[in-house]
Design goal:
Radius of gyration: 16 Å
CATH topology: Jelly Rolls
Helix content: 10-25%
CATH superfamily: Protein of unknown function DUF192
Strand content: 25-35%
Structural class: alpha+beta
Number of strands: 10
Oligomer: single chain
Largest sheet: 8 strands, mixed
Order of helices and strands: HEEHEEEEEEHEHE
Shape: globular
Length: 160
């Protein structure tokens, strides 16, 4: 019984402590995916990718983990209080696979092949917005002209 109380106390500390929002600053960047343009937090450095969405609650924005070169991406949910779905994005900016990640889990979720990015959104977001494998993602800071051309036909989502 003492072990159970100890585990509950640790879980309460993890959930209530402000871990990520104050330790690393994330900028918001626009991306286009499916029929939507959304702003997500950008994790484009090792420090930001390691921090990820840990401790962010409530979750206000998704997160794109961006790499300079395609690489095998491995993710876990340590200190992350929200259930997430992740889309692994290949070098052509196409969704190659999805994984569902449960809060505080230490299970590893990996891209099936080298990926340039991983897009983390609340659990169920991709299904609710009909985003499937093969969907094209536009990373607007990289392809500004293409994003501007498509913007008029897209639904803009400010948060998750």
């Amino acid at each position: 019984m003492l072990k159970t109380i100890h585990k509950l106390a640790i879980l309460t500390l993890l959930v209530s402590s402000p871990i990520s929002a104050n330790s690393v600053e994330f900028s918001l960047v626009p991306i286009q995916l499916g029929q939507y343009e959304i702003k997500v937090q950008l994790a484009d450095t090792t420090e930001k990718r390691m921090q990820g969405l840990m401790g962010q609650q409530p979750l206000k924005h998704g997160l794109i983990l961006l790499f300079q070169e395609p690489t095998k991406i491995n993710l876990w949910m340590k200190n992350t209080p929200s259930a997430l779905d992740v889309a692994f994005i290949d070098n052509n900016w196409v969704v190659q696979s999805f994984a569902t990640m449960e809060p505080f889990s230490l299970d590893t979720h990996s891209s099936k092949s080298p990926a340039i990015a991983a897009l983390e959104m609340p659990k169920g977001w991709f299904a609710a917005h009909q985003i499937k494998i093969g969907a094209q993602l536009r990373y607007c800071p990289l392809v500004k002209e293409q994003c501007l051309q498509h913007q008029a036909t897209l639904k803009i989502i400010e948060g998750v």
